[in-house]
Amino acid sequence: MTFEYAPAPESRSIVDIKASYGLFINGEFVDGRGTSFKTISPSTEEVLSEIAEADEADVDLAVKAARRAHARVWGRMPGRERAKYLYRIARIIQERGRELAVLESIDNGKPIKESRDVDVPVAAAHFFYYAGWADKLEYAGYGDRSLGVAAQVIPWNFPLLMLAWKIAPALAAGNTVVLKPAETTPLTALLFAEICQQADLPPGVVNIITGAGATGQALVSHTDVDKVAFTGSTEVGKAIARAVAGTDKKVTLELGGKAANIVFDDAPIDQAVEGIVDGIFFNQGHVCCAGSRLLVQESVADDVLERLKRRMSTLRMGDPLDKNTDIGAINSGEQLKRIRELSEVGDAEGAERWEVACDLPTKGFWFPPTLFTGVTQAHRIAREEVFGPVLSVLTFRTPAEAVEKANNTPYGLSAGVWTDKGSLILKMASQLRAGVVWANTFNKFDPTSPFGGYKESGYGREGGRHGLEGYLRTPHESAR
Amino acid sequence: MPPTPAAATSQGPAWDFSDVTHSDASLRRFLHGLPGVDQVGADARAASLGTRSIKTTAKAYALDLAIRMVDLTTLEGQDTHGKVRALAAKAMRPDPADPTCPATAAVCVYPDMVATAKDVLGDSGVNVAAVATAFPSGRAALDIKLADTRDAVEAGADEIDMVIDRGAFLSGRYLQVFEEIVAVKEACARPDGQSAHLKVIFETGELQTYDNVRRVSWLGMMAGAHFIKTSTGKVQPAATLPVTMVMLQAVRDFREATGQMVGVKPAGGIRTSKDAIKYLVVVNEVAGPDWLDPDWFRFGASTLLNELLMQRTKMTTGRYSGPDYFTLD
């Protein structure tokens, strides 16, 4: 007999998914004028709910509500009063944590252990953290005057967490927001709208509008928004940058990545293997800062790969609501198609594919944890963002070569360094052109730490004191 | 990593470590050349395995396995023959009300209690383990440690739990530690050509760093330990999940290098079924299912057994019963 873990599903009964959802504008849910769309569970393809689509007129209503709330209430409220609302929201997120986690796993496909242990607690932590800044803005060094209305568009990989990254600093700095969640994952944002009601947040301070690309485009192009914050693909980010060019909108963009995770021969190998797994298989690899390029020193490459494969074979893939699931479902059929396509390009270009042998569920969108060896800088899978559980393995001989290869990408969001030598960590960190460099760890997120990219990974920082800059009028701008 | 043996297979001869184990300097080069252990990362991995949710059939399997892995232990100055006889009886029939309840792996006592325990256990299949070598401090001359060991083996001990000289290890006298283990292993030999199994206790609470745990694990395995064991139970902290995980990585790597399997025994501080199941999850996912067997993994414990029994009864009857329904020894 073997130690087979029996199913341990988290109960769905805690969530109450309505048959349809409207738009959250000026503190209440209203019908959208666009063509409503369905959100499905990517692990079962079950239709979860019918979601309203905001058209240009709806976007205009939402922006007007936000403008009014900024002018009359939120922009004038003392920081210490705004803080009370943020603390209240943070506490409600904690109190309703299980509900949020289950809903996130159902709508997004990510394993419950991640939504429960990462997404929800870190989202609450962001509200707590920025609540603390609300009455201390003058000490942050970016002025203490809010910008006005922030238009925020977020992706489907961390629906609630990206919402928190966007809304918490904006509100702390005295802005009001109109936020559009991704069309495949709107449910936790809509539950967050209920949390705003529960927290008695004044109407119009937070507006949530749903829809796809056209809605987002209408939002960021609206003439009365002062700030555009976007997290998503580099392609859409460039379109947004073009759309706002020539306006005085402030912009922060957090885009794609192709991070190098660099393992030196003196690294703590077992922990490095864990870090490689966390780096690329966390959240099915749907992470902009994923360590999708493993750069391993040649002298330990065979050993690391053998350990990595053994470790990957213990990953448990399946029902996102099962508490023992490590790898959940790919978020959408469209994304699955892209992952398959790029992997096939990897095969065609002569890289060697190795994947975990496991039975994939017949329904839903699934892709097994996969790695490619024999990859060079010239391969497309080493250059393009797959945004899935696919690792490209490259080798290097010297620290200089590692830096050269790591930086040889249009992106520059994150990087990882694994070595027992502290001085090498510092040297690498200063030479790697990446917004975040993790040392002997990977994919760690903390509200006190700024996050953002170089080059095609975008600009501006979210998190930490730096995260306030994008939401405040500097003294210089105020004088204009 | 250790040198990859050219001809190591699971049936093949043990890897020859003689070029490593001939001097302090060569041992130091080898042990300090093992990959380091990042404490933060190791703790995080152990904690993450600790969140596995083991329910229903998996839990029933794990509870019975854990009972079969218990080295039921009494190591106190106040131990008497009566107490040891009671403990031995309990080891054979942990739950007198339920004949389907398995026996424990062994009872673990001081050497002077071995004959008493053996007398009760006979050929029941439950082994007698004896702590030896000036347990728990190990602070005695080598000939006294060897005499202590021989005494226990002569009295009928099936397993010897020795302690290493932590002072020697911490001051870098690796060869001394190595040679002591080799000598104690020789003292485990019985006249019939058989030999008592040797468990080597590191007292990881005194060695403290995970780098030390990994090094001492290799040192013990190269010296011929059948089992490597965390602690005496007399020093805090005793067994912890991350320390046990580092030792399980070591036995896994040792088998990869030599084809030889070595067992692991966490001891002390494991009191609840929930904790025991976390250890079994770590065994399963780090060393692999081959180690999920009393021959290769043990719990050194006393109060844990009743906790396992209570949970087992709960699984079969659906009700919790009170501690009064389980025997105290």
Provide a short characterization of the protein structure.
The complex is a heterodimer of chains A (480) and B (329). With 480 residues, chain A is of the alpha/beta class.
What does this structure look like?
The complex is a heterodimer of chains A (480) and B (329). With 480 residues, chain A is of the alpha/beta class. In chain A, α2 runs antiparallel to α4 (112-133) and α9 crosses α10. Chain A folds into two domains: 20-255 and 456-479, Aldehyde Dehydrogenase, Chain A, domain 1, CATH 3.40.605.10; 260-446, Aldehyde Dehydrogenase, Chain A, domain 2 (3-Layer(aba) Sandwich). Chain A is globular and about 65 Å long. Chain A has 14 helices and 20 strands. In chain A, the strands form five sheets. In chain A, strands 14-15-16-13-12-17-18 form a seven-stranded mixed β-sheet, sandwiched between helices. In chain B, α11 (241-258) runs parallel beside α12. Chain B has one domain (25-319): TIM Barrel (Alpha-Beta Barrel). In chain B, β2, α5 and β3 (127-132) form a beta-alpha-beta unit. Chain B has helices spanning 24-32, 39-49, 56-68, 81-92, 114-121, 142-154, 166-170, 174-187, 204-207, 210-222, 241-258, 273-287, 303-317, and strands at residues 70-73, 106-109, 127-132, 159-163, 197-201, 227-229, 263-265, 299-301. The longest helix of chain B is centred in the C-terminal third of the chain and has 18 residues, at 241-258. An eight-stranded parallel β-sheet of chain B has the order 7-6-5-4-3-2-1-8. Helices cover 46% and strands 10% of the residues of chain B. Chain B is α/β, with parallel strands linked by helices. The A-B interface holds A 1-8, 113, 117, 266-271, 274-275, 300, 303, 314, 323-324, 420, 440-441 and B 1, 35-38, 40-42, 44-45, 51-59, 61-62, 65, 249, 280, 284-285, 289, 292.
